[in-house]
Amino acid sequence: MDSLHEKPRSKKRKFVIESVENLSVQAMLAHPALVRFRTTPPELSSLTTTLEREPYVEGDRPGRKYISRLTLNDMDGKVYSGQNQLCRHSNNDICLVGIANKKTGKMRLLEAEEFLVSPEIDLVNNEPDEVNSPKKYNATVLFGTKKNRLKHKVLMEEKDRRAAELTSSVEKARPLIEKTTSVVTSSSSDNSYFLPPINTSAKTVDEVYNMSDIVEDYVLEHLIDEASALLETKGLDTEKVRPLFMQCLAGARLETDDEGRLRYACAAIYVEYLCRIVSGVDLPLDNMDDAVVEHLKNTYKLTKKARFLPPEMIHKALANIMQKFEIFIRTPDDGAVAAREKDIHAYCDSASFAISRSIIGEQNFSFRQKEKMSIG
């Protein structure tokens, strides 16, 4: 009889941690977000979300942290918004989300951002709420804390500075954009097969060529492991790598944010692969991701164990190398010029030499070497 009144025992499951992925590894992938509501949450199925990120400003220079702002809209027109909570904590606080596989008994841990959202007050009769609207500014000044007022002042000054820089950049780039537009209009349709498309509505020089038109991000994502290892290496054996690859990697390291450095380091590896197949050098197929190999075969019609290009594909590969190299040597952000002016000048001075001797070289280099790379 006593057994009938016993409480059922809860089943405990044990999982083996398969991997732990932080936000730097997930830089080009979607990462989870934990959302808490200050008020009663709305119907979740009716929500649409928007996530915006900008560098966290510390004094006059942007830091490594990012301010992420999450905006939720429901079908009734109500808007909920809030910033990520991680930027207020120390660097030792990490929020992780576990994804368990009951069949294999393994779990992946993903670093997540935590948001505390609250309903926004409609200040201007259901019109879009602008950051620089006078009513919102007055509300922040009158009712905000001292910390919020100071942060609002810094953000507004930063926004005005960026607006002035953007206006100046557009005026400087206008002659080049008009010249580029006229060239595209007069060019024949045959060249469009070999050359990446040009953005005729670009407002700055950086927007004339788009890296995703040459190789999409889903291909670069398969090169994240190699790119992370290269960025962590202080030096490489210059006798085993092409000068063009070294210059592209140096350009990636000039990026001011972690996501940009990782993305351009992946692109540098992709440029090295193109140089290999143009030169007739074997690709390290055993060490390459299957998705990257399949992309190269389909895009450039590789034959004979992915070694030789058809004649018409050589022109396309060379054009893509040159256009991607132009993306690498674009002018960095103005905020980084003053701090790294010496590195930028040295990088640009050696760029023309690298491009002239790299494409036809036949150095062998594997991005997954088991032995340690030499430190310079």
TrEMBL record:
<dbReference type="GO" id="GO:0005730">
    <property type="term" value="C:nucleolus"/>
</dbReference>
<dbReference type="Pfam" id="PF06870">
    <property type="entry name" value="RNA_pol_I_A49"/>
</dbReference>
<keyword id="KW-0804">Transcription</keyword>
<dbReference type="InterPro" id="IPR009668">
    <property type="entry name" value="RNA_pol-assoc_fac_A49-like"/>
</dbReference>
<dbReference type="GO" id="GO:0000428">
    <property type="term" value="C:DNA-directed RNA polymerase complex"/>
</dbReference>
<keyword id="KW-0539">Nucleus</keyword>
<dbReference type="GO" id="GO:0006351">
    <property type="term" value="P:DNA-templated transcription"/>
</dbReference>
<comment type="similarity">
    <text>Belongs to the eukaryotic RPA49/POLR1E RNA polymerase subunit family.</text>
</comment>
<keyword id="KW-0240">DNA-directed RNA polymerase</keyword>
<protein>
    <submittedName>
        <fullName>Uncharacterized protein LOC108679314</fullName>
    </submittedName>
</protein>
<dbReference type="GO" id="GO:0003677">
    <property type="term" value="F:DNA binding"/>
</dbReference>
